[in-house]
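protien #1 (seq + structre)
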Amino acid sequence: MLYKFCSDAKLIKSIILCKFLGSEVHKEVLKITTLKKNSYEFLLVVSYKISEEFIEELINKFKKLIEKNAEFENVDRWGKRRLAYLINKEIDGYYVLFNFKSVPDFPEEISRISEITDNILRYIIIKKSNEIIYKKEGQVN
């Protein structure tokens, strides 16, 4: 269960070594889980051919997804903008920028959902920075 949230390979190696050696000094290390949280920007370009109500539903869908699985920071609605080139024979798109912090696995999930959602012309997820948070086992946010 401890390995599930460990994305740092060095920490996993040291935990396995500590379990093998079983020394008293390293038993405290086993009680600490490292969660590596990164800051991300998620830019979404939605088709402007759909109604504004549906655009709001899409924004709320992604906002709820981010709030459920990450630390939601803010959403910045850029609104209707002209595209640099035609995408699916469309000239305009509705731009939305989400900022959030999460573990490295979550952007893969949000990318997968973006690809299968209709009326999304383009999206990009950018990693801004990272910070390491130490939690003792059983500690809740």
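ok now protien #2
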Amino acid sequence: MTYTHLTREERYQIHALRRQNISPAVIAAQLNRSRSTITRELNRNAGAQGYKPARAHERARARQGARRNARQFNAQQWSQVHRYLRLELSPEQVSGRLRLEGVLTISHECIYQHIYDDKRKGGELIKHLRCQKVRRKRYGSGQERRGTLKDRLCIEQRPAIVDARSRMGDWEGDTVVGKGHQGVLVTLVERKSRYTLAQQLDSRHSAGVTEAVIALLRPHKHLCETITFDNGKEFAEHAFIAASLGAMCTSRIPTTHGSVGSTRTPMACCASTSPSAPTCAGSRSTKLTMRSTGSTTDPASASTTALPTRCSWAWRFVRYTEIRCTL
């Protein structure tokens, strides 16, 4: 609910109705206001001679003008904010640091507004923000702004037996992006055996991802009952994948992490934090497979085999998956 301050006209109406000994509750009903709003107005703005609407309005405006906001911080206080910003701290960190030191209480939103105002004046504070885009605060509508996957099936619609991991043939798919957003791995994990398939691509466009998923799973089509993806737009052609493999494709909500989520996390962290790990840029697409039991291409086979690749972070991923499946 949006709150609006009482206007001058409303205060004159309150004054006229009170002179007729009308109760605050009735006044509130006539003005479509809360009873507490009328009571608070009479208590705060009444003077020695009773409630005077003109004087009450002046007092209310004076209190609004006395509120602490960005325009009231002096140059010395802003210099403290600038000092931390130039140390590459985020506005949230600057706000928390100054509050912790007992120097200044200022919200991070106020700091953002100051930075954008400085940019309009030709300043350079904007260069110290980690995100150079113009920041716009969005208040949750609960709706996806990038569009949704057409005709997608929710994860709740897949058979209950999938959650039990009691059969072979239920897969989970996802994509892993390399350091600097260069290079992509399409990963598929069989839920029961943890048998993992991965293929390296140059981008995360749906056409390439769709082709990779079908190519990886076609040899295992006889063991392909369900495939669960996330809501990423790279899986926009999930219906075509389902028709090609004769499987049921479902989508999980972003906060639901399945087999792929736990499989890819160590590699993803390694790819993003290790300075020695090269990216996949310019590499050819290389299929990486991991077998948990045998030398054949069946997920139920018995030995551990993997094909190396020129992308070292992708190779670390496969090595991690091998170790994980031997535990």
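The radius of gyration is 31 Å.
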